[in-house]
Fold this protein.
Amino acid sequence: MRPTAPLDTLSALYHRRSGITHLIVEPVPEILAALTKAPATASQLTETLVADYGLEQDAESAAALQARLDELEAIGLVWRL
Amino acid sequence: MRFSTSMRVGPVGFRIGSDWRAPIAGLKRLYRDYPKPADDIPHFTVRLEATHWWRRFVRPSVRIAGDHTLPEALPLPLAQGVLAAEMAMNLQMALGQRHFLLVHAASVERDGKVMILTGESGSGKSTLAALLGEHGWRLLGDEFALIDPQTGEAHPFPRPISLKNASIDVMAALAPPERFGERINGTPKGDIRHLIPNAAALAGMDKSAPPALILFPRFGNAADVREVLPSEVFIRLTQASTNYVSLAERGYTALTQLVTQTPARAIDFPDTATGLKLVQDLWAELA
């Protein structure tokens, strides 16, 4: 668990493993909330975000989502199983 | 150490030792009405040492030593020995305090609620806090706000207020001479004179209270008030905290609770009278 605190447009997130505080903006809190419930593939995650948050289901959104996932993986907030 | 004194400031006990008599005499005067550390055991020890043994006598120069030190800190002339002690005490708190989240801020209490004033050196927070302390508010401190991660309450740390330059005369008109220390001229921050907090502040040094307003004062511009959103308050307070990182998740939880539960405003003020009125109006509206 990583506690996330919604502030206003930004949310704060404390990463226990590194001790680093991140300030995150949509869609990152939504991605992390979805993945906290259960691990998912990129396409499953897209379906969740489309259903729960009204994400557009097109190539541009898919590329943006992949870019966010790559960034989150690089800082250790999401990882591959 | 040849000379020494000890005192308790709010929840923190200090012992100060020195190679010289003068800084200890100055400290004893400033802290004459403070209690001693609980069970006479200080949390932090500070030593004011001669840079070399012969420097006790020739152009005396004070080096700060203690539980926590900065290796690159420059020695100060002996005439600024009280200032060296103050800096050393701040350093012990900044580097060694683990119980409270420390925010570089002044704080005052009214109606059982606390206002936190934070900003860079020169922003006017010390002067405003000193003024409020003479206008019916209880001064909690002008240097560090101590936030208890368990309760979210602000604890007093009412050190003598470090008045600088023009604010020395502002406060000299409001407080009697016996509450002032010696004037220290030519410090890196200009002229400094300490003001001993009044009896209400010292009597209340063990009384914490919940924060109700966070202010970011800035002296020198036309009067203005701006709302500060929690995310900006969060960022600015992490920068103003000396131990946010070392408190780890306790610090994160304390700070997120503080910024989401407490309204915040930035104020500009051109003079102390305007600043005082702005603060009092905001308090009436928001706290």
